[in-house]
């Protein structure tokens, strides 16, 4: 297994943040390595320093292929008390996603990470962060894979299945009370900035973040026309893939996209069809 450790850093506004770093399995001397930033959902969740490999966060598969993985517990994460979990209330994204970029900068400053080979991925709120990375922070990320992610905050309130949680836990306002805040905190608002190749994945039966969120992001990025974008839907899947086949396809597409744009030829997207055959020994 690759080396895994807790890292700590200060954000631009002085907050102390923790995250996990999984090193590449093999690193040649002091060479800088590509990084995949993996963002948890919620944001009321966190990464613990234990076994964290999974279909949507294949950190040891990434490590074996020369990548480092960074899993930040940005502000609003759980595990550090109620006050910390409320730091993003009424201002989603913003400081939360700044924390993620500040963590990437910390790893670049240590000499580990190649700043032009940084990707971002995550599901749900992590998908929101990934869409934010592909738009608002596009200059910082060379590849993005967003899964069941938020792209338009206002329409999410009226189409998802947790409008009261959105109001009471996350936003503190309804869209008609502060439309500008909802607009500014939506990745589609910043789609014209995007130069990041973006793979969008979504379950067709998702009630929490309806697939229209991914349709919207796809169309905005497609119309902006500045970077490759692909949309893949999973029939019958909800807010996270449950079937083994869907999970396997997801993992392969995630790895394919990151390798193609962080260490591969880049340019036009890789083939839509993926090879499901196991590698020969």
TrEMBL record:
Protein's UniProt name: Alpha/beta hydrolase family protein
Signal sequence segment: none
Alphabetical keyword list: Hydrolase
Organism this protein belongs to: Lysobacter brunescens
UniProt enzyme class: hydrolase
UniProt keyword Ligase present: no
Hydrolase listed as a keyword: yes
EC number: 3.4.-.-
Domain Peptidase S9 prolyl oligopeptidase catalytic: 56-263
Stored PANTHER family: DIPEPTIDYL PEPTIDASE FAMILY MEMBER 6, SERINE PEPTIDASE S9 FAMILY MEMBER
Gene Ontology molecular functions: hydrolase activity
Top-level taxon of origin: Bacteria
InterPro entries: AB_hydrolase_fold, Peptidase_S9_cat
């Amino acid at each position: 297994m690759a080396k895994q450790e807790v890292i700590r850093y200060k954000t631009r506004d002085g907050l102390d943040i923790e995250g996990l770093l999984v090193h590449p399995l093999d690193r040649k001397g002091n060479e800088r390595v590509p990084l995949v930033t993996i963002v948890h959902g919620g944001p009321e969740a966190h990464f613990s320093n234990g076994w964290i490999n999974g279909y949507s966060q294949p950190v040891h598969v990434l490590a074996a292929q020369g990548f480092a993985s960074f899993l930040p517990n940005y502000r609003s994460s759980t595990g550090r008390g109620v006050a910390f979990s409320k730091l993003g209330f009424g201002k989603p994204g913003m400081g939360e996603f700044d924390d993620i970029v500040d963590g990437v900068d910390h790893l670049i400053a240590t000499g580990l990470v190649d700043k032009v080979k940084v990707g971002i991925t995550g599901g749900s709120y992590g998908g929101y962060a990934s869409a934010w990375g592909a738009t608002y922070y596009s200059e910082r990320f060379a590849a993005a894979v967003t899964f069941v992610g938020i792209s338009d905050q206002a329409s999410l309130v009226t189409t998802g299945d947790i409008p009261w949680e959105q109001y009471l836990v996350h936003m503190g306002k309804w869209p008609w009370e502060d439309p500008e805040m909802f607009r500014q905190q939506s990745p589609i608002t910043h789609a014209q900035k995007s130069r990041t190749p973006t793979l969008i994945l979504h379950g067709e039966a998702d009630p929490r973040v309806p697939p229209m969120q991914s349709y919207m992001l796809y169309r905005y990025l497609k119309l902006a026309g500045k970077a490759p974008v692909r949309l893949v839907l999973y029939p019958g899947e909800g807010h996270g893939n449950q079937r083994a086949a869907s999970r396997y396809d997801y993992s392969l597409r995630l790895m394919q996209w990151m390798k193609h744009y962080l260490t591969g030829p880049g340019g036009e997207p890789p083939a839509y069809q993926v090879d499901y055959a196991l590698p020969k020994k």
